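Predict the holo structure. Ligand: S-adenosylmethionine.
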Amino acid sequence: MKPALLELLRCPVCPGLSARLALDAAERRGEAIVAGRLACAAGHAFAIADGIPDFVEPHDAVAARSAVYDTLWEAHADQRYAGREAEYRAKFQAFARLPEPLEAHFRGRVVLDAGCGEGRFTWLAAVLGAAHVVAVDASRAALRRARAGAGGLANVSFVRADVMALPLGRAFDCVLSLGVLHHTEDTERAYRAIVRHLTPGGLVTIFVYGRRTLPWVIWPLRRWSLRADRERVRRLCDAYGFGYDPARRPRLAVGRALRRLGRLDVLGLGRVTYEGLTTPYLREHSLGEVRRWFAETGVELLSSTRQVSASGRLVGEP
Ligand SMILES: C[S@@+](CC[C@H](N)C(=O)[O-])C[C@H]1O[C@@H](n2cnc3c(N)ncnc32)[C@H](O)[C@@H]1O
Ligand SMILES: [Zn+2]
């Protein structure tokens, strides 16, 4: 953990996003804090383990849910982002549709990547010149991968936390959350929880599944898969090519064959994935809903897509 992160951390239990956390019993390696404890004046304490402050209680529901993502992210080979800036700019702009140059939105800014996953947009914001990017995820494996891909940069920090209760103040010029909010217990509540961290004039970009983005067959399949032994679901997905990792070689590439059929795959089985079958929460939203969330939190819409993604700027108080 970088000492600069301490300035941005706030106790997630104390109300008002204003209670600071003090560092206790820190073990350092050079500047970096590799282990220790963070505590607020009211006595709420959180561990720093392997250099990452951890705000997910070991036995709570968020910890249990993040295990699904641990399996997903562990299945991947680590990403190497260096030299792939053009590719990731294009990936980000497919959602964000911000006026170019992208640097204008990130240079010198404090950025929150809420649900960073493997850190592709954490890395992008950092190389586009952000002052500090805080990458948050509930999954330990996601953070490990994000750190492998973007952790070498001086302006990136990692935090393990629930997007619903971020241990951060209202200090961010830019909040990104792509492909995350629809995996929480309440998408709108999660959106409101992340936008609280934006400073007036700040930029927010979100992506949530649009209506009928997911193949309809996923819904009846989930009635089985969410109850089934997860390891069995994973083995089945791996064997038939419904896995999350395109680099895996399945025994029978049924998933790939169905994907080639495109529209002829009327059931949409080719678009079923291990994530879709196992992620505890999965919802689709309309652009109208997202527009309403923005309007009700004082965020002026800058751009949107029907996927659904949207970018906006905070004009009033959220
Ligand atoms: C589909 S990935 C998206 C990752 C990244 N934003 C991207 O676009 O590549 C969803 C991520 O959200 C994280 N996530 C889901 N629910 C969360 C929660 N309540 N708090 C923090 N992270 C969460 C998962 O662990 C996972 O890494
Ligand atoms: Zn506290």
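The radius of gyration is 20 Å. The pocket of S-adenosylmethionine (ligand 1) is lined by residues 62, 66, 69, 115-117, 120-121, 137-139, 142, 162-164, 178-180, 183-184 (CB under 6 Å).
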